[in-house]
Amino acid sequence: MNKILEVRGLSKIYGPGCPQCLESTGPEADTNLCPHCGSVVAIHDVSFDLFEGEILGVMGESGSGKSTVVKTLYFDQAPSSGEAIFFDNDRQYDLFSLNAAQQRWLRNHRFGMVYQNPNLGLNFNISAGGNIAERLLMSDLMDYGAIRERAKALLARTEVLLSRVDDLPKHFSGGMQQRVQIAKALATQPPLLFLDEVTTGLDLSVQARILDLILEIQQELKTAMVVVTHDLGVIRLLTGRAIVMKYGRVIETGLTDQILEDPQHAYTQRLVASAL
Amino acid sequence: MNAMSHNQAGNAYNFGFLDEYAKKEVRRAILKAIAIPGYQVPYASREMPMGRGFGTGGLQLTLSLIGPNEVVKVIDQGSDDSVNAVNLRRFIEMTCPGVSTTTATAECTLIQSRHRIPELPLTARQILVLQVPYPDPLVVVEPSEDKRKTMHGEADYSRLLVKLYEDIVKFGEITISHRYPTRINGHYVIDPSPIPRWDVPKLNDSAALILFGAGREKKIYAVPPHTKAEPLAFSDVPFRVEDFRDEQGRRRACARCGCVDSFLDEFVTDSGSKTYQCSDSDWCDMQLRKARQTQGEPA
Amino acid sequence: MSYVAIKGGGQAIAGAAAVSEYLRTEEGLGNTGAEPLAIDAILHQLRHLVDRVVSEGGVYYPRFAALAIKQSMGDTLEAAFALRAWRSTRPRLSETPPLDTSRMRLIRRISAAFKDIPGGQMLGPTPDYALRLLRLELMDESPDAFRAVARNWLEKCPEAELPDTFPKVLDALRAEGLLPPVSATRGQTAFDITREPLVFPVPRSAQLATMARAETGSLLAIAYSNMRGYGDVHPTVAELRVGYLPVMLPHPVTGELVEAGEVLITECEVVAMYEADEAGGKPVFTIGYGACFGHNEVKAISMAILDRALQKGMKDGANNPSEDPEFVLLHVDGVDSMGFASHYKMPHYVTFQSDLDRLRTTQQKSGEPA
User: What ipTM was predicted for this assembly?
Assistant: First the structure.
């Protein structure tokens, strides 16, 4: 299997930072807030690899830094330090040394993102089809008919009623908004997709259908995914490997089955036990 | 008295009204605008003695470029005789002694215009200055100038294109009537000022230098001679100029000169019927003269 | 058939000017004793109008401001505009160093923060506590009575020596460590908005300069939105002073600073809610600064509040319009905004023709089956 993403030593600190930040935060310190300078160590020294067609889970409670991981990789925020290499066919990109235009190009063409809050991923003032069209237009597809066909095909694939292609997403249900977000993320057939708590807050039956959809897509398109969630059920259903985070640090990593059946870290043990 | 005309308060107005430092700054901005076709160059726009929105940006360009041998034409809505054109022309005559003015497109070296590009193709020895109310085509999708600057830098026009897409979805047509966003030299998209779509193709590969001045918004930009200018459109929904065909599909003619290939103004006559005339008054006069000459010739 | 268009433009313009001039002088028709408004009368009796015009016009030239008021028949936007346009023709000859406002020759000075302040409170000329009742006796004021008022006031006025400087209230607070230290940018050359375009983000000096020339009503409206709840500056007026500020200019030959004259200004310093210090120091109050030509307290206070709001917006991101530098600075200039509002009166035949074409085509399309 080919590696698609290599993340090494990824860190993000909000605030001025001080020499004591790292030793004063983390799972042992039981906080991510530095008592000396008030900075938040959102993530520190996160490293992992992702392979083609693989789904990697990033698991943790709120404040663990799990969302920060994908936000830095998707260029929503710049990391404080660390490195990430994206392998794309024969090319490789050192993500954080690219300029803004190159980063935007990768975001639009080779990455996809589905946010927990559809407001972040969709423009609520343009139609569902328009949202998908925006991503296609970024990729210089300039044929109206072709754009429209592609938008319809994507919405059909994500099980959005075609009669709603020209409706505004703000009038859609939460589950439907996530489907449109997924369709938009897939528009350019990216080899890498980030999913940040995509089913949180949805009805259980809706959750199940969206998770099924994600699995189908992964099997069909062989898209590699990083799935961020606090929900062990999502981790169990979707991911093959997972990392567990607490207060900004990775505390456990391995095959999902192994982590769930035989957790090593006391925190993971509590997490798994509480979910049973 | 020399070129300086003094008023009662004893203060002199410089040739071209603006002080020389101001003119130099405008000229530097022009050079930069020509060097980066379509890029909006910020400049410290001066207050002129007419309202912001009445052509103060265009006027600063004109006054900074004008030399004593200039032949200037000023038009507004295609007409040399409209109130604002007359006002600007008078101001130029007053503050630039020695400069001559004309209404003939063929004779001028510098044209300042609002909302129209003359029908007569311009030549390499002419400069066209267009007055601009809104310099940035992205303003319809992004209110922050700071963010728009980044979008322009990265040639990120997808949100503007989505607007065209949504138009077609809603109306079956691109509804932008004037100020049609146009990509210059393959990168920057400009607001070509409120010229009708009819005039947009004249920007492409123009022999004359075309300058745009936005006084209130304090920007100058340019389409240099022989530069590519492409209106944004889809490959299967092409850009279209105004349609002047009647109900039977025949091209309407100017009621005065009979011209069938100019931009027409529509009037409702006192009797309530509609009539059409060339918007470009000099062009209309030229067609009339031509027609008379042809008639005058022996058969 | 004649060209149906906007013919006779020149004549129309001349006619419009003539009829305006008729209205300005119309009083002379029925009244043989009618006199034109004297510049001095405007300077003195309409002083607040002059103050607005010098401030919004951006040139301290009260006599020309009075002239502009006269020719515009009291339209402040037009008058400030005429002054601004005249200013465009003037080169920049010299730059003053930062001027020390503690050296102002004060006519008024108050603090809302302290009952007493070093140097004392001085109410001075203000309508703040006046009853806004129409003074009907002024309807028919006799020239003699008019001249007597000022004379009598001066005679009764006790002679007093004013000190050369009045300490600033803020200095006392700063000495106590309640204010942030003086910014490192103080003393640097200020941004000249008449010579450089605003390219955002802009330095604070550009923001202050833009607001100092702003139209009073526009500035007030945006500041008021912050006061009412679209913002949270919650200011206390530490000091508001009005007076004549000596203007120091380098001597053209020796380079030595000499006093070139003085300008009447209004200055306002507000103290607002304190903020934690980023570098880990003690929290301190925050400050907002406002100053403008002429006696215009509403403008100086509005500016001080907006200065604070903008500093906050620059630091934390704008949470409301008054904290957004682009929103505030690009919408408060009277010459820009009035010009653009007026331009809609100009012909838009061509663009409207183009609009008609689009609407007709779209109407046609919407009649067709999809």
Answer: 0.85
Residues C188 and C112 in one domain: yes
C163 touches chain A (CB under 8 A): no
Could you list the residue range(s) of the whole structural domain that residue A237 is in? 3-110+193-275
Is there a contact between A38 and C279 if contact means CB atoms under 8 Å apart? no
Q: Give the mutation candidate from A122, A132, A144, A162 for the B interface (greatest B CB count, under 10 A).
A: A144
Q: Which residue stretches of chain C are H helix?
A: 9-25, 39-45, 47-57, 62-71, 76-88, 143-156, 169-175, 204-212, 216-228, 297-316, 325-329, 334-343, 349-367
Based on the domain organization, do C52 and C185 belong to the same domain? Answer: no
The answer to whether position C283 is within a domain reads yes
Q: According to the model, what pLDDT value does residue C158 have?
A: 84
B150 touches chain A (CB under 8 A): yes
| pLDDT value at residue A202 | 85
Collapsing DSSP states into helix, strand and coil, what is residue A63? coil
Same domain assignment for residues A151 and A70: no
pLDDT in tens, A210-258: 999 999 999 999 999 999 999 999 999 999 999 999 999 999 999 999 9
Q: Which residue of B has its CA nearest to C8?
A: B81
Domain borders along chain B are 5-231, 244-299
Q: Provide the domain count of chain C.
A: 2
| The amino acid at B256 | R
Closest residue in C to B7 (Cα–Cα): C86
Q: Is C121 buried (19+), middle (13-18) or exposed (0-12) by CB count in 10 A?
A: middle
Distance from CA of C341 to the nearest CA of B (A): 8
Under CATH, which architecture does the B5-231 domain have?
Answer: 3-Layer(aba) Sandwich (3.40)
Distance, CA of B164 to CA of B166 (rounded, Å): 5
Residue C1 has pLDDT above 60, yes or no: no
Residue B7: which pLDDT band, with cuts at 50, 70 and 90? very low
Among C275, C277, C278, C315, the strongest candidate for a mutation testing the A interface, having the largest count of A CBs within 10 A, is C278
Query: Is C146 part of any domain?
Result: no
